[in-house]
Amino acid sequence: MGNPNGLSSTTIHSAFNIEPQTPAQKRAMSYANTTKLLFDEILSAKQPADRVLANYFREHKKHGSKDRKVIRESLFSLFRWWGWFKAAGDHQQAAHFFAMLSASALLEAHPWQDIAQAWHELSQSTHDYQRLQSIPVNNLTDKLALVRQLFPQVVLELTDLLPEWFWQVCPIDAKRRPNLIEAMSSRPPIWGRAQSINSQTAVSQLQALGIEASLSPFFEDAINLGSKSMNLNEITLYKEGNIEIQDLASQVIGQICAPEPWQHWWDACSGAGGKTLQLRSLMQTAATKQHTPLQGSIVSSDIRANALEELSKRAQRAQFDGISIARWRSDALPVAANYFDGVLVDAPCSCTGTWRRNPDMRWLDTLDAVMDKATLQLDILSRSSQAVKAGGTLIYATCSLSPVENEEVVSAFLQQHPEFNLVPIRHPFTGEQTEMLTVWPFEANTDGMFVARMQRKH
């Protein structure tokens, strides 16, 4: 693994004012320097970690794949356990930063244990590293016990792994709270969805490439792609549009929409089109099963031109017709009123349900990230509802876990729009019937998601 950041040894060492004593410590110091530069930039600029990291790697092309992996995984680990680490000491102190890196490598059993041990040595810890390695970290209780040993000077609790304000706006009963924290402290697998191809065929082809693919017990087109990173552009199934990356919780939305082959749908906040493609794929599958022609269509709208351009590329790659674009250019509806059999409003939100994939965001966001969205969400839902025809379906969804952005918005909408009724939903993972559905990350190893289904009266 050479020098991971391409900086001179003098520059690297002076960042911590510690002189490495071994080759392993020298490499560890270099990785630590790069990781700290990125960590500090993310916290100070309040920019998403994946964006900062992508920019960094684009500007520093000398990194090998192993170097990138150590830097990437170490960086995200720091944010995953930051609730404990920030309580235990000042990360601007070199010894504590090395202790954080070493602890995160132990907590997640990273394979670069030689580097992790060097970080441990540089932290000047008195703990025996081999003994620490022997401590089990099979669950969150084990991990809390390990961190309490490493940082005995502070009182640490499981709930510290999520910001205090989260618990104020995302209530969950005490019995399930540890399950949520455990899920939020682990990475979900990569989920995909088969399109225009049998899912078992797709799984077999992916397995032949060494990808740990498996079928989902919940949806026939859903595929678990494991947790290892992969270059999608090297996978023929992806290049030919036969597989799309979409989290299982996100797939719940399309399944609840359940579009028929003859229906016309509007995806009012389509973004780059993940759910638009899912809706079209579900229409196609339903047409095949029902032995009926595929006569329906989907109109996709967003305020961002670049997102709609990406949607068009993805639709072309999938060889899907019947998808058209209508960009939001003002408050006026970009589509016909009272026309659609179904309207999907996947509203902009705080994205607290995606914190498993973006652990940095729980520390970059504040309470305002949840509290300042409801007015916009209600406005978008109200305007979009005008496009639903009599008897048609209106779906409201977010990737938030907060009732402020979810149930409260739907309740306010229904109060203002008595022409709509709430339609009960059956939870696809538990089978329970519910008026409005929150998918919790621990229920099927997914992100978090909310969805409500409404119908316009005839």
From TrEMBL:
- Show the GO MF annotations: RNA binding; rRNA (cytosine-C5-)-methyltransferase activity
Which domain of life, per UniProt? Bacteria
The family database entries (InterPro entries) matched by this protein are listed as:
MeTrfase_RsmB-F_NOP2_cat (IPR049560), MeTrfase_RsmB-F_NOP2_dom (IPR001678), RCMT (IPR023267), SAM-dependent_MTases_sf (IPR029063)
Q: Which GO terms describe its biological process?
A: rRNA base methylation
Q: What Pfam families does UniProt report for this protein, alphabetically?
A: Methyltr_RsmB-F
PANTHER family annotated for this entry? NOL1_NOP2_SUN FAMILY PROTEIN _ ANTITERMINATION NUSB DOMAIN-CONTAINING PROTEIN, NOP2 YEAST -RELATED NOL1/NOP2/FMU SUN DOMAIN-CONTAINING
Tell me which family the UniProt entry assigns to this protein.
Belongs to the class I-like SAM-binding methyltransferase superfamily. RsmB/NOP family.
Q: What is this protein called?
A: tRNA/rRNA cytosine-C5-methylase RsmB
